[in-house]
Structures are given as structure tokens and as C-alpha cells.
Amino acid sequence: MAAAEEASRPFAGLSDVSISEDIPVEGDISVPLGPSTRRDEEFSTLDEPVKETILRDLRAVGNKFIHVLYPKRSTALLRDWDLWGPLLLCVTLALLLQGGAADSDDQGGPQFAEVFVIIWFGSIIITLNSKLLGGTISFFQSLCVLGYCILPLTVAMAVCRIVLVGGSGTVSFAVRLVVVTASFGWSTFASTAFLADNQPPDRKALVVYPVFLFYFVIGWMILTFSPSQ
Amino acid sequence: MASTNDPFQFQEFEEAGNLLEANRDATTINIEEDDIKPDKQRKAASFTPDGDDEDPLASDDKTELLSGPKKSVPFWTFEYYQRFFDIETHHVKERIIGSVLPWPGKNYIHVHLHRNPDLYGPFWICTTLVFAIAISGNISNFLVHLGKPNYKYTPEFRKVTIAATAIFTYAWFVPLALWGFLLWRNNKIMNLVSYSFMEIVCVYGYSLAIYIPAVVLWIIPFEWLRWCSIVVALFLSGSVLVMTFWPAVRDDHPKVIIAVLSAITVLNILLAVGCKAYFFSKPEAVLPAAATEVTKAPSST
């Protein structure tokens, strides 16, 4: 008897809440504050022109580019992730790295697939590493941040190709070295500004080191790129 | 206890030898039981025969008690792998320094790992070493050929793949073979010290840490400097490995001891010298080459 009472006790609070008969239980569950306008907004994407849809996404991507260029520890890059920007940057970088020296030879620079694999698998491994170390960031958020933070390096690659048109002497190498070093520092700084806060304080260095290595290797690929003559 | 006391009282002189035998059996059974018990018990059992490992024991006890018992989770879950990344920055620093500066008589696994082997260090040390070898090999190749008229710089990106294959093979398959071998010997000969697979992987991974500065030194195209750094690195990483695996094979046949320790050393030397020979071209070998062959030099070295 006592046991039965004990068992029923957790629900004692619930039993007090009696739903009176005259309130209908059915109906639609919606927040009364302006649900109609929200729904209209969502539905309106169906009949908007395709151009607007694409432009809206592009604007979101561009917005994130600006966040990478001015890393100020905001969470906008983390809140709604997308992988369009990383894909765009990765393909651009891989295409710019094509046409390198001795392309037919095995000893040449990285091929398109190699760049692609290094960037994606590299960011996946870094993400797994930070998750295994106890990070609170979600998998795709981290991929998104790492992908977007390649932006400075992609810009450096574009600059390097322009410099290489002028010639490939010592001066050109010095300019490329400076540009690549600066963008490598920028990438590392930007990504750690977004990622390091989500880690336990004792493990920040352990998370930052792989990120550093990742951008260092990408920076190395950009710096050693030399066009075929 | 009562059963061993009974023969002791009544058959004092007749079966003294048997009694000794029985006692010996009793101790071995005890050790076996201890081996089955996880963590603390096993640790204490494996520590007692080593007198020189007394120092870390005092500090170990506290950490061991604080860390609490480990849960056993199946290997397909994320938590299983999280165990191997349960380290902090200062642990990694201590482990790297411990592997770079081996101390005579200190067992790396007992002093530094505290029954908590990690995969972070081995994985990222191997990855760093792969890129360090590929990049510094490329730079040294460039420095050797600097000023040659027919030389055209290439990034030699394929070296990354080859270096990755060589180093990850060494860091995973050698521990696997060693672990299997020690397991087999442990069945034959009662051994007080036994290592888990992850501990062996961890020691091998951290023992590669000394090669990273050595490889960076190899950029400078002086053969004597390269050989000096190779010898130093080999000595340091080899002594860590030998001192770690010495207690595990100590009670074995002398032939087996020599075979295991020399295999460990030879594989280590093979990795270091092989990397040096493949990724870093010798200045002497290239200098007398004809100008037309200089362009082909990177593919032949």
C-alpha cells in the first residue's frame, strides 16, 4: 500500500492539474504572436523568382565572407552554417592551383583532386579532433568555419597568380612569401577566434595546433605554385 | 589460508619441497588474478618488482584515484574514442619532453602514460612529421640545385603521399606486430609487465617526436650535420623504445630478448635512414652529374 502510494507520488502534481470539461482540447497549437505573417513569409519563397532565392543565399555567403575578414568573435558564422561558401572557395583554390609546373609529370604540384581531398578531409579530421577533445561546437558548424576561413588564402592565391604573370624572380617570390604568410596568419587567427571559445581552457592549444598545421600546408601549396612556361 | 596452514602443522619436514611448490603456485595465481583486475590492482602488481620505479608511484596514486574508474563502452561509439583524447595541453607537453629526454631506468609507459594512453599525440606527431619530411625534403632539394641553369623548381607534391604511407605504416603496423608478439610470449612465459595495444601505439607515436626537429635540420645541405642529427635522434628514440620494452621481455629467453630489441632498433634505423636517403638528395651524388641529368635528379633520388 505504501509502495503504491510512493509510486503514484511522482504524478501527484499532475493529478492536481485538472482540465475542465468546457475547454476544448483540440485545435491548432500555435504561438498567437504573429504566426500568420511568418507563415506568409515562408510560403512566399515558393513564388519568388529564382534570381531572388539565389541572391539571398549569395548574400548570406557574402555576409559570412565579411565575418571572416573582420573576425570579431561574433557567433553569426556559427549560428547558421552552410557549406556553399567552403565549396566555392575550395573549388576556386583548386582551379587556381591548376596549370602548374610539369603538370604531366608525377613530381608536379598538387592535382585538383588532391587539393579537394586535403581541404575536405583535413577539415573533417580537425573537426573530429576538436569533438573528441570535448568541444561543444557541432560538426557542420566547425566544417563551415574551417571552410570559410580559407578565404584569405584563396585571395592570396589569386594575388600570387597575378604576381606570377609579371615574372618569377626573387622579387616576385618575396612578394608571394609576404602575401601567403599574412593570409596564413589571418586564416589561423580568424578560425581560432571562432573555434577556440568552444573548447575547455586546458585544451585550446591542442585544438589550435591542427588548425595551424592545416592552413600551413595550404599556404605551402600556394607558395610553391609555379606556372608552366 | 586454512588449507595451506594444515599441511604446515602436520607434515612439517616431509613435504617441505612440496610446500614450497604450493606456495609458489599460490603467488603465481595471485598475480594472474591481479592481471585480470583492471587499473589500480594491476598497476600495483606490475610496479612492485621494479624498485627503481618507486618515485612516480607516489604521485601516480593521487591521479589514479582522482580520475576514477573507466567505463567500458563498445568500440563503435563516439565515447570509446573520446577516451583516447582525454588529455590536456600540459600532458602532451610532458609526454613529448619525456620522449625527447629519456632517463635511464625510467619506463616511459609507467612514468608518463599513467594507464591513460592517448591517440592525439601519435596522430598529430605523425601528421606533422609527414609534412615536415615532405616540405623540408623539397626545400633541401631546391637548395642543392640552386643556381643550376637547367633546374626548374617543382613542388614534388607526391612526396607527401609517400611519406604518409611510410610513417603511418611504421607507427601502426610495428606496434601491432609487437603487441601480437608480446601477447604470444606472455602466454608462454609468465610476465609481470604487459602492455595494451594503445600503450604501444602511444609510445611509438611519441618516440617519433624527436624526428621532427631532426628533419627540419636536414634542410641544411651538409652531410655531416644530417648524419649527426640522425644519430642523436636514433639514439634518443631508440633508447625510449628499448627501455620501455625491456621489462616486458626481461624474463624471456636471451635469444628472444635480443631478437625483439634488435628488431625494434633495426626498424627504427631503417625508417630514419630510409627517409633520409629517399627524401633528401645528396649533394655529392648530384654535383658530378651532367647538366642534362640535373633536371631528372628529383625523380631518381
Automatic annotation (TrEMBL), chain A:
Pfam families: Yip1. GO terms for biological process: endoplasmic reticulum to Golgi vesicle-mediated transport. Residues 68-221 form the Yip1 domain. Keywords: Membrane, Transmembrane, Transmembrane helix. The keyword Heme does not apply. The chain crosses the membrane at residues 81-100, 112-133, 145-167, 173-195, 207-226. It is found in: Golgi apparatus membrane; Membrane. The keyword Membrane applies. Coiled coil: none annotated. One of its GO terms (cellular component) is trans-Golgi network. It is a multi-pass membrane protein. Belongs to the YIP1 family. This is Protein YIPF. It comes from Perca flavescens. The lineage of its organism: Eukaryota, Metazoa, Chordata, Craniata, Vertebrata.
TrEMBL record, chain B:
The chain crosses the membrane at residues 119-140, 160-184, 196-218, 224-249, 256-279. Residues 29-65 are annotated as: Disordered. It is found in: Golgi apparatus membrane; Golgi apparatus, cis-Golgi network membrane. Pfam families: Yip1. It comes from Perca flavescens (American yellow perch). One of its GO terms (molecular function) is small GTPase binding. The keyword Membrane applies. This is Protein YIPF. Keywords: Membrane, Transmembrane, Transmembrane helix. Belongs to the YIP1 family.
